[in-house]
Every structure is written in structure tokens, then in C-alpha cells.
Amino acid sequence: MLKKLFFSSISACLFINSSSWAQSVNQSDINGGATITTAVPFLNLNPDARGAGLGDAGVATSPDANSTYWNSAKLAFIEKGFGFSLAYNPWLRKLVPDMSLSYLSGYYKIRKEEVVALSMTYFDLGSIQFMDAAGKELQKFSPNEFAIAGTYSRKLSKTMGVGVTLRYIYSNLAGSIASSSGSEPTAGQTVAADIGYFYTKPISIKGTKNNLALGANISNVGAKISYGNDSRKDFIPSNLRVGTSFTHELDPYNKVILSLDLNKLLVPTPNPNDTTEKGLISGIIGSFSDAPGGFSEEMKEITISTGLEYWYNNVFAIRAGYFNESQMKGNRKYMTVGAGLKYQVFNLDMAYLVSFQQNNPLAETMRFTLSFNFDKKTDSVTE
């Protein structure tokens, strides 16, 4: 009985972590497709309030300290010499009072063409009370996951840049609580890498100043993760994000920015008729053609994020966005609103999610990101 309770607790923890945004498997089957789930899905949870206000778009927006999440290649185009950002996001607050996602990122410009950065993501899953078969309380445990990453970003030209990130991932969902058989789960650990590309070019249209940006980022490409001594290993959420951003200056004090992101998980689609064990490379390559429903289902695995941002005098911003996912792949659909404020070295961004569903973990939740950006002394920057 203890074994059953133990694995039920772990399953509940995994469900909250992996499927809080997705419909149940049964509902997905009814809709004619399978929802893709992975281990450590917190890696693909957006911690940035600015991007959150834009419907979770950000692969091609202007660079800031949170570019380490969206697209590391953007960092090479950041104007300031160094800075950092801190974000805190309550999670499933309507159901659980103590779950949260926190993010800390900092960057440093080595010289005009090169930037390095460090970041850490921490996902706190709250507290779980374990009990034996008689209902006696055994002990409490607080599952948690985190990732620590280092980034290098470089300009290839005035308009193009690339970036790479290496990431260590740690996931402890059960602690040292053993089952009745004596088996003890272990914390999952793995490493992963990101690679990003960014293109930005000023464009003049009928005398107005504009800018076109393109971005692409492949994130969390790494080995599978395991939580015990058995042979089962789970994919981590490798992801392809591509998008664009267009900035139009209405006048010297007012500008609007339109952004669009497309996302696709690079992991196999669940298929009961295909029991072949897939590795990292075969899983990524096969993710473009393995949906049981063929090409039409593959297209439904792409999520769309679009956002509109207005800036006044580069001091105050208001934002709105929309996120859409196919009903048969999770059915996340929501609108977002947000605002931003810049004052000297200080930036504050806020976002609020308006869900079309009752089970969205961030519905009616205000999110904040605080960041600081500083200039370096001219003689300390190698041109």
C-alpha cells in the first residue's frame, strides 16, 4: 500500500509539473490527437513578463537580460555594458498556494561584438505530505527543479548574430522517500544546449524609420532524463522557436512593434502503434513526421504567439498578445496584457493573462520582471 501511495504522490507531482496546461489523455483522444508531454517541462515556461504581455512572443524582439531564455543570439546586440534581471511567477495559485517559477539572469559585454551571460531557473512545486497505508503522516517533501546556464553571444556582422547556451538541469521530485519494496528514486540530472540566430536591419519606408528582425532558436537539446534505477528515460522539452518582429516609428516619441513566434516541440508524438525506442537525434528528426494523423496533425503541433507593443518616448510601454494551441494538442488559448516602465537604469515589466479556460495555471495572475542595465566606461570596452 505504501508503494502505491508513494507512486501516486509522485505521479501527482509529475502531473502538476508536466500536464498543468494540457488536457487529459482521454480528452486528447476524443479530440483525435495526442498531447505531447516531457520531463522537466519548466524549461519551456516563459519567466519574462515582457514576453508574457506579448502572448509569449520574444524570439525576435529587442534584446534585454531575458534574451537568455528567448534567443541567446539577441544578446550580442544589446546596447548596455552589463545588467541583470529577476522574475517571479506564481504557479497554479488557484489550486496550490506555494508553487512558483523564479528566474535570474545577468549579462556582461566583453567587447562590442561579444556578450556572455549566466542564468538560473528555479521551479518550486510546493510541499507534499507522504502517508503510509494507515493514513499516518510520514514526512513532508518539497519537490523542486532548477537549471543553470551559461551563454556566449557574438555578432557576425552589423545585422546578424549567433548565440550558444550550455545548461545543467536538476529535477528532484521525490527526495529520499523509499517505497515498500525498498527502491529509492533518484534526482534526475542531464545537460542540454541551445543555439540561436538573430537578424536585425533598419528599413526606411516613405521617410519613416522602421526595423525588421528575424529570430530562430533551438533550445534544450540534450540527453534523456531518468528518476530511478530502472531503464525508463524521458525526453526533455527540446523546442524550435522561429519568429519575426517589425518596429514602426510613428514619430520621434511614439513607436509600435508587432511580434510573431511559432513553436514546435522536437520530441516524438505519442503513438500506441509505434513502440520503437527513439534516441535524441532520431527523436528530433522524427518529430517533424511522426504524428499518427499525418501532416495535418504535425501542423497542429505548432503553437502561435503574437503580440503588439506600443512605446512612448522609450519610457512607457503597453502590450497585448494572443496565444493559440490546437485543441487536440493541449488547447491552450489565452489573451495577455502588459505594461513596461523604463527609468534610467531601472526597468519594470508587468503582465496579466486572460484565459479562455478555467484551468490555466496563470489565469488572473499578475507577473513581474525587474531588471537593471548599466553602461560601461568607454575605455573598458574593446572596440
List keywords for this structure.
383 residues; mainly beta; Porin; 14-stranded antiparallel beta barrel; two-stranded antiparallel ribbon; 6 helices; 16 strands; 12% helix; 45% strand; globular; disordered N terminus
What is the name of the CATH class?
Mainly Beta
Note the gap between the termini. 67 Å
Class derived from helix and strand content: mainly beta
How many H/I helical runs?
Answer: 6
CATH architecture: Beta Barrel
Kindly estimate the percentage of residues that lie in beta strands according to DSSP: over 45%
Structure, described:
The protein contains six helices and 16 strands. It is mainly beta and 383 residues long. It has a single domain, classed as Porin. Strands 1-2-3-6-7-8-9-10-11-12-13-14-15-16 form a 14-stranded antiparallel beta barrel. The protein has a two-stranded antiparallel sheet with strand order 4-5. It is globular and about 75 Å long. Mean pLDDT is 85; it is low at 1-32 and 378-383.
Provide a quick synopsis of the model.
Helices cover 12% and strands 45% of the residues.
Topology, element by element:
Layout: H1 2-19, H2 25-31, H3 49-53, H4 67-70, E1 82-90, E2 100-111, E3 114-124, E4 128-131, E5 137-141, E6 144-155, E7 160-172, E8 188-205, E9 208-222, E10 239-251, E11 254-265, H5 280-286, H6 295-300, E12 303-312, E13 316-324, E14 333-343, E15 346-355, E16 366-374
Antiparallel strand pairs: 1-2, 1-16, 2-3, 3-6, 4-5, 6-7, 7-8, 8-9, 9-10, 10-11, 11-12, 12-13, 13-14, 14-15, 15-16
